[in-house]
Specification:
about 230 residues, mainly alpha, about 0% strand
């Protein structure tokens, strides 16, 4: 028989990945806004290929494996090791706007988490302000969210926000956006499985088109999304 108490960590995960969480996840396009303006991404198929590449070549090989390590080190109270991986992530952000996103969302989490019952020591607050992944990892541990589900939820949250950018800017219809979510979400289980077995020396991102778009987006004359 299903233990109804097992539902609570899952509900906490839904809250953690919700677009309504006030950490500004919906305000960034990570270069997609510039790519759309330049015609690199102008159709639903092109958007799907863009996001699939970013998911598999960046998030699966960079953010998720680092999240796994930060979560493990925080659970073991090995804060120096967790902080080192936060710095590694920041160093792997190739553009100014991507680094600012990491810091800005980290600062927002540092303000929010105490209001949700997570105590932040000065050391943990500094870590969270360095990287949003530290905040996500702390919440995983505090709320006893299964790691695999948390990784899938992190990917889903990124994907949902990215598809919304495409819906607004290409533009695309809401139904097409839902079709894209259905298609791209099917890649998430394999991405999580891959992220869990990646070794330290395999961690890294390779999305040159997205990096170039992010660089140019920093100087885009008119834009809806934050830089």
């Amino acid at each position: 028989m299903y233990n109804i108490q097992n539902m609570l960590p899952e509900l906490r995960l839904y809250q953690l990945i919700s677009p309504s969480l006030p950490v500004g996840g919906f305000t960034y396009s990570q270069g997609l806004e510039w790519a759309i303006e330049q015609g690199w991404v102008s159709t639903a198929d092109a958007l799907e290929e863009w996001l699939k590449s970013q998911m598999l070549e960046s998030l699966t090989h960079l953010e998720l494996p680092i999240l796994v390590r930060i979560q493990g080190y925080l659970a073991a109270s090995e804060y120096a090791q967790a902080q080192a991986w936060c710095h590694y992530l920041t160093a792997s952000r190739e553009t100014k706007e991507l680094r600012l996103e990491e810091y800005q969302r980290g600062i927002a989490y540092a303000q929010l988490l105490p209001k949700l019952g997570l105590t932040l020591t000065p050391e943990l607050k500094t870590m969270v302000q360095t990287s949003q992944l530290a905040a996500f990892a702390l919440a995983i541990n505090q709320w006893q969210i299964p790691l695999e589900k948390a990784l899938g939820g992190y990917l889903w949250s990124w994907l949902e926000n990215a598809v919304v950018v495409g819906i607004k800017l290409v533009p695309l219809g809401q139904s097409i956006g839902q079709q894209l979510l259905m298609s791209l979400a099917s890649c998430i289980p394999a991405a999580v499985e891959k992220a869990l077995i990646i070794q330290d020396d395999e961690i890294g991102s390779f999305t040159p088109a997205q990096v170039m778009a992010s660089c140019r987006h920093e100087h885009q004359y008119t834009r809806l999304f934050r830089s």
